[in-house]
Amino acid sequence: MPDTATKITVRHDDTNFGPYRVAEINRMLVDGRLSINDLAWVEGAPEWVRLGVVPGVVRVPPAPSEAPAMLDGEPVSPRLVLPAFLLAFFVGVFGVHRFYVGKTGSGIAMLLLTITLVGTIITAIWATIDWILIVCGAFRDAEGRRLVVWT
User: Fold this and answer.
1) For residue 86, what pLDDT is reported?
2) What is the pTM of this model?
3) What pLDDT shows up at residue 73?
4) Where are the beta strands (DSSP E) in 66-146?
5) In angstroms, what CA-CA distances link 132 with 75, 84, 85, 148?
6) Per the omega criterion (within 30 degrees of 0), is the bond before 19 cis?
């Protein structure tokens, strides 16, 4: 078991660093400069081992991943309602609001339909329905997540 005077050499990104004392290594682990999966050679040891198995070395838990926001047990879109609302209201017939939420295919369809007179009527109705869905919080992005955050 290494004591505070024990020297440890660390191999990080195929380069050797050190020797360090256990306290210095623990500080570097906490700062994120080292990983417990880096190799370490303890002074007097016969071989290199993972840093995480060296006695006295702290195990720093991984940083929590940013979990998606949830509402009523389903994920919420990172896209905001206000831009989608304004795009659907002012230029909805061109499908711009659908491009905004990642629905590129239907956005292209709306854009192409708008070129014709009959298509413009169809996209006007389509955009109005989308606009109502956006206001009600029922509109979803390309990944199926609802838009609920206004600003």
Assistant:
1) 95
2) 0.55
3) 77
4) 70-71, 74-75
5) 21, 11, 9, 13
6) yes
**CA distance linking residue 86 with residue 30, whole number of Å:** 46
- Domain ranges across the chain: 8-53, 70-136
Q: How far is CA 57 from CA 6, 8, 9, 40, 87, in A?
A: 12, 11, 13, 11, 55
CA–CA separation, 147 vs 150, rounded Å? Answer: 8
pLDDT along the chain (151 residues), means of 10: 71 86 88 86 90 82 66 84 94 93 93 90 93 92 90 82
Q: Kind of pairing, strands 49-50 and 39-42?
A: antiparallel
CB atoms within 10 A of CB 144: 9
Per-residue pLDDT at 112: 93
SS3 percent helix, strand, coil of the chain, rounded to 5, is 40, 15, 45
Task: Tell me the C-alpha distance between 18 and 43, whole Å.
Answer: 11
